[in-house]
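Z., the sequence and structure:
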Amino acid sequence: MSDQYARVSAQPDDTKKWRGIGMLVTFGAFVIVAIGVLTTPFYQNPLPSELFKYEVTNPEAVCNDGSPSIVYVRKTHTKKWLIYVEGGILYCWDKATCDTRRAQHPELMSSDDAPDSLDPTGLMSSDCALNPDWCDANIGYIYYCSSDYFTGTVKDSDAGVHFQGWEILQSAVSDLLTIHGMDAADTVLYTGKGGGGVAALITVDRIVEQIRDGLKDRLHADVRSFTDSGWVSAREPYSPRECDGTDDATTCNIAGGSREG
């Protein structure tokens, strides 16, 4: 009887023991999971891929046809920013070349049909297996609709269009700094490809200065630029053609066309 009583009396202690072991196991599992989350590379967590459309707030910053200029923005958890100047089929500079451009590529002169979002690749891809250095960057993508390498400052030109590219570029960068949070950046890369690369090359000094002036930590932030295919060569094309305004600007000597523009 006493043995049976002893065995029965021991059961609560056994229960406490197993409960304690269970708590330790649960806590250990929690610690393992927490360590796993903390040590998992950030690129295994989903990053936003889409860039969303915003109208540039300066009403003077308009496309060739007077429609509002556009900047596409993607926000992430980092203080890294990439400003991408969109390229296009070069430029136009007078009524004949701009009429041809409008007939062939109306999307390069207006934002009316600009998509609501973009899902870019390459340097702007959010796939860190393909783009490990910049996949987590915030992005400002400046839409090209001014046909002037983002350098124009003319409204109601003789060509019958506005050339307000410089106004667009400055205003878009200002919006990124004051509205979209780029002022908190510690790293900024200013770049573009093709016509956008030419624009980045031409404007780099003034835009980088504008960016630095707008940053909270301007003394320590790393602001750089590079251009992708942003060169205009004076070499004659295979079929030389003067830029006399009778043809699409892309069919004539590109260096001569740039000088005309």
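Residues 4-10, 36-44 have pLDDT under 50 and may be disordered. Residues 2-39 form the longest helix (38 residues).

Let me know what you think.
H.
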